[in-house]
Design goal:
Elements (H helix, E strand, L loop, with lengths): L1 H49 L6 H4 L12 H11 L7 E4 L6 H13 L12 E5 L16 E4 L7 H5 L4 E4 L1 H4 L4 E5 L6 H13 L1 E2 L15 H9 L1 E2 L3 E6 L8 H4 L3 E4 L5 H15 L2 E2 L1 H10 L3 H17 L4 E2 L1 H11 L14 E2 L1 E8 L3 E13 L7 E4 L4 E6 L2 E6 L1 H17 L6 E7 L11 H13 L2 E2 L3 E3 L2 E2 L5 E2 L4 H11 L3 E5 L13 E5 L2 H9 L5 H6 L16
Parallel strand pairs: 1-8, 1-9, 2-5, 5-8, 10-11, 13-20, 15-18, 20-23, 23-24
Antiparallel strand pairs: 3-4, 6-7, 12-19, 13-14, 14-18, 16-17, 21-22
Helix pairs in contact: 3-4, 10-11, 10-12, 11-13, 12-13, 14-15, 15-17
């Protein structure tokens, strides 16, 4: 009996030993297979890294220093003051696409690191996200901006998940701790994300919650207890960039940030970018071709894209000089449209005045405002307004409502003022006000220009064609301040205007740097007196010979 038991035990031990031997052998075999497969994959990975395409022109021309960012000296100066100081601030950069906002933000952090008084150091990171493409989940399961908690019930919870441990995952705000978080197109953020971001900016940390967390759970590691109790650090400086106008950005985020404006590039600056891009590609650019790019490219990125396509075509023909005809081909193929060209009339006319506006991301424009006034045959006349936004429809918080345009209200203010100040009895006229140029106008800043146009149409005095003006008008005839005066004055100068009337409260010494005569005004009486002081009746200008000014649109220069 004893021998049988011993034999049975030996047999059982042999089976167990054989089992473990096979397990070990299987693991060794599996390990060898994994190592073999890993070597094969590493060879493939090394080969992939060895093979590279040539760097795209857009990357070759990306600014590496502030000197490479063309036309943004004032914006960079402001950004340097905001970020490189002892107490860096949150910033929102406004401006059109393709003018260097992202590159400037990257470079400014590197410069701040060199400042001994700056809180940024060599470990400060630049974390970049595109707000228009960020994933969003209301459950905060995988929010890449704020962070999330990976609860144990979800696939991929890992070893800790098996033991029912929730795991906080840092988002971009924590990854940017003690550095810069750059949010491109910040105006496109979901409002719920924006609210969470504002909370982080206030607390400078991220607080997590989870139904699976218990402070009494001894299985949860100490560092996770610490995170749930004290939050995850998120002390960073926000640099947001947007192509929208300030009015489109939530006031809550604007109030926490310094606002910096990068300007739209003019034709000469676009041409400089085109020349640099051509040089980086190894070719040459004809001056006429460069001028055409300046007329069609809306920004530096478009200029580089045009050069890249043109040089690709030229190099296939074994040439190295990009000619005007090559750019014309690219423009036609890419369906590029010419930029709006600011222009003014060639002589003074009745009822036509140069108004000023800002469109897009702080880009100035000269707009022709015209008015006609005819005596009403019977009784009260009517007022017709075209070329402006008369009513605006707004959707918000599940509600929809409409409001009257501020530009339309400006016309009503003008008529009241002209009746009160000059006793023109505007109700006796059929008045038609039109804003030319195809750009729908809204905002009160055209008030003073509309007043001048209607006054001119009623009294029959022409308006100096080389004068432009901007300013809101009150029902008492006061000229009130408006926005974007520098951009407006710059556009006026480029169009050939010599005098610009601006509200007194908008005047600054920066305007004196422009090749213009800037005149500040505070009332409609000042405006009317200045505009018509030296003007003669319209027939005078029709009887003298004026120099012919040929206005050619960029789209016509190819013909």
């Amino acid at each position: 009996m004893t021998e049988a038991v011993v034999i049975a035990q030996l047999g059982f031990s042999a089976i167990i030993a054989t089992y473990f031997f096979m397990q070990i052998r299987g693991q060794q075999s599996k390990r060898k297979t994994i190592i073999s497969d890993s070597k094969k994959e590493q060879i493939i990975l090394d080969e992939m890294r060895r093979r590279k395409l040539n760097m795209p022109l857009s990357e070759l021309t990306r600014p590496k220093t502030f000197d490479d960012i063309i036309g943004q000296e004032d914006g960079i100066k402001a950004l340097r003051a905001a970020i490189c100081s002892k107490n860096p601030q949150h910033v929102i950069i406004y401006g059109p696409p393709g003018i260097g906002k992202t590159c400037a933000a990257r470079l400014i952090l590197e410069e701040a690191k060199q400042n001994k008084e700056s809180p940024f150091d060599e470990n400060s990171k630049f974390v970049e996200m595109d707000a228009s493409s960020m994933r969003f989940d209301e459950r905060s399961i995988a929010d890449p901006l704020i962070g999330s908690v990976h609860d144990p019930i979800y696939q991929g919870a890992g070893a800790m998940g098996v033991y029912g441990i929730p795991q906080p995952k840092p988002g971009a705000v924590s990854k940017a701790h003690c550095g810069v978080l750059f949010l491109d197109e910040i105006g496109e953020m979901h409002h719920l994300q924006m609210n969470k971001l504002l909370k982080v900016l206030e607390d400078r940390k991220v607080l997590f919650e989870s139904a699976y967390y218990s402070a009494e759970n001894q299985n949860i590691p100490k560092h996770i207890h610490d995170i749930f109790k004290n939050g995850l650090p998120a002390d960073f400086r926000l640099i947001g960039a947007t192509t929208r106008s300030p009015e489109d950005i939530p006031p809550a985020i604007r109030s926490r940030c310094l606002e910096i404006f990068f300007k739209a590039l003019d034709e000469e600056e676009i041409m400089d970018i085109a020349y640099n891009a051509t040089a980086n590609s190894g070719g040459k650019l004809n001056s006429e071709a460069a001028k055409l790019i300046g007329q069609y490219a809306q920004n530096g990125r478009e200029a580089v894209n045009i050069i890249q396509l043109a040089y690709g075509f030229v190099s296939q023909e074994c040439r190295d000089v990009i000619e005007k005809e090559d750019i014309e081909w690219v423009i036609e193929t890419g369906r590029y449209s010419p930029k709006p060209i600011n222009r003014i009339s060639d002589k003074p006319q009745i009822g036509i005045v140069n108004g000023l506006a800002v469109y897009g991301a702080n880009m100035g424009a000269v707009i022709e405002i015209e008015a006609q006034a005819m005596k009403a045959r019977h009784g009260k006349g009517k007022v017709t307004i075209t070329g402006i936004i008369e009513n605006e429809r707004i959707d918000g918080r599940g509600k929809s409502y409409s409001k009257k345009s501020t530009a339309a209200s400006s016309v009503e203010n003008v008529l009241t003022v002209l009746d009160q100040v000059y006793d023109l009895n505007t109700e006796a006229y059929n008045i038609h006000v039109n804003v030319g140029g195809g750009m729908q106008l809204d905002g009160p800043s055209a008030g003073s220009a509309i007043a001048v146009a209607i006054y001119s149409a009623i009294v029959g005095l022409p308006i100096d064609n080389k004068l432009a003006l901007t300013g809101e008008i009150s029902i008492r005839g006061a000229i009130k301040p408006v926005g974007g005066v520098l951009e407006k004055a710059t556009a006026a100068m480029q169009a050939g205007v010599t005098r610009v009337l601006v509200p007194k409260d908008n005047y600054s010494h920066r305007l004196d740097k422009l090749d213009l005569k800037i005149i500040s005004v505070s009332s409609i009486k000042e405006v009317i007196d200045l505009v018509f002081a030296d003007m003669k009746p319209a027939h005078y200008y029709n009887s003298i010979e004026l120099p012919t000014v040929e206005v050619v649109y960029a789209s016509e220069q190819n013909h």
